[in-house]
Amino acid sequence: MIAKNALVILALTAVTLSADFDYTVTNTNFTISQPSVFPGDDARYLYNYDRLRFRGDYTQDNLFVTFIGDGVNYLGHDYVNSTSFEYVKLVESDTPFKTQTTFYDYYEGNVYAKLYRLYAGYEDEQNRVVVGLQNITMGVGRIWTPTNLFNPRNTYALEPDETFGVAAISYTRHITETSDITIVASQKADYSFKYAATYKAFFEYADFGADIVSSDETFMVGYELEANLGDTGVEIRSEGAYIRNNDLIVVNLDTNTSHKEDVEFFQGIVGADYGFENGITVVAEALYSSEKFAYNEIIPNLNSEILPNLVLSNFYLGGTVSYAFTLFLDGSLTYIESFNEQNSRFVSPTVTYTLDDYNTFTLGAMLQNGPSGSEFGTFEDTYYFRYELSF
Predict the structure, then answer these.
(1) Alpha-helical runs (H) found in 91-140
(2) How large is the average pLDDT for residues 324-352?
(3) Of 14, 132, 157, 327, which cross-links 119 as Cys (Cβ 3.0–4.6 Å)?
(4) Helices (H) then strands (E): counts for the chain
(5) Phi, psi (deg, nearest 5) at residue 297
């Protein structure tokens, strides 16, 4: 109902403005074999996940409106009746209105509709303003983005860039050809506000950015830096964030009670990219965190603003290698090592075959290895087959 009403409103808006209209429809289908998301649970599930996505874009002169809505279906009796799926149903956007319908059960599955993005805006040579359910981008990391407290990337997910939208007003002012400032005001599910400001500029040989995020629970100040390493073709980057949060839930397992504590820490990344002439592209990145957290500290904070920053190790080293074997066949491999009392690793290989402009097939895995009780040694491997149809 949410997506349907939003689409009707946007259609009426388009008629009123006599705007140009473009649309795409994409169906993404996963067949997945995965373990339970909870430590200590040995269950494994085989199920199908399907997302039918409609995107409509209206434009006229400097005005634009974008709507993205999803119909989502899970098929697999054991999975939709599992504790792991109950967790999926609890995860919602941090917005003052619901962006998805109730989950509806049927014989072997579960289905719901989701409003993914809905925003309108104005843009000219010096200004860009966007209002609505949108994506707020911060940071320069390819694997981790510690400065992004709005739409952080999740490298360990099947679709790392699929994130909930933010109900916000964002304004960007292009001060010069090489500098701009962006301010953001967003409203959360509890109707409180989160604010952000970013200044970016090109100085001599590098792009530099300064970020500030503030809410009732969190304060963050950070930096972004990107540059070319001379004439080598290597692009280097770094970002860092000092984070202070006064709403971290801490559970005492002995007394089964909980309380809130203040926490402050620094997280930063350094990385580099290089593309070889033979078509191989290499990305390397390291993450440092001055604090680390245990599973029993992370699970009670699933709705925290800083959940993606609650890491289990002080130091990670990661990299991605991608290569186009042919015009139709691509491969990639992501490797992440967690340096802790017991080292462990996450490996994600994928092979993608592009049949034509409309059909894409991907075979992939998320492999976790390490001693029992280590970060990536706690969970079993996940395997999947993905088929995407666009028209």
Answers:
(1) none
(2) 96
(3) 132
(4) 4, 19
(5) -95, -25
d(CA 259, CA 291): 19
> Which three-class secondary structure state does DSSP give residue 88?
helix
Q: How far is CA 107 from the centre of its chain?
A: 31
Q: What does residue 381 show for φ and ψ, rounded to 5 degrees? A: -80, 155
User: Under a CB-based contact definition with an 8 Å cutoff, are residues 338 and 312 in contact?
Assistant: yes
Backbone angles phi, psi at 228, to 5 degrees: -90, 135
* Mean per-residue pLDDT, 140-151: 95
From residue 192, alpha-carbon distances to 94, 263, 302, 305, 344 in Å are: 10, 20, 18, 12, 39
User: Which residue, among 171, 154, 148, has the nearest Cα to 222 in the 3D structure?
Assistant: 148
Collect all residues with Cβ–Cβ distance below 8 Å to 178 and sequence separation of at least 6.
201, 202
Which residue shows structure tokens 């119909």?
71
Alpha-carbon distances of 374 from 135, 143, 294, 335, rounded to whole Å: 33, 21, 11, 16
Listed residue (60, 51, 64, 67) closest to 4, CA to CA = 67
Quick one: residue 238, left, alpha or beta (phi over 0 = left, psi -120 to 50 = alpha)? beta
Residues 6+ apart with CB under 8 A from 58: 10, 13, 14, 17, 19, 20, 21, 64, 65, 66
Distance CA 6, CA 1 (A): 8
Q: pLDDT tens digits for 105-129?
A: 998 999 999 999 999 999 999 999 9
DSSP β-bridge partners for residue 59: 20, 64
Report the range of poorest mean pLDDT among 15-29, 51-65, 123-137, 263-277: 15-29
Q: Is residue 253 pLDDT above 70, yes or no?
A: no
Rounded to an integer, what is the distance from CA 233 to the centroid of its chain? 28
More confident site: 314 or 39: 314
Nearest residue to 143 (alpha-carbon basis) of 324, 280, 286, 243: 286
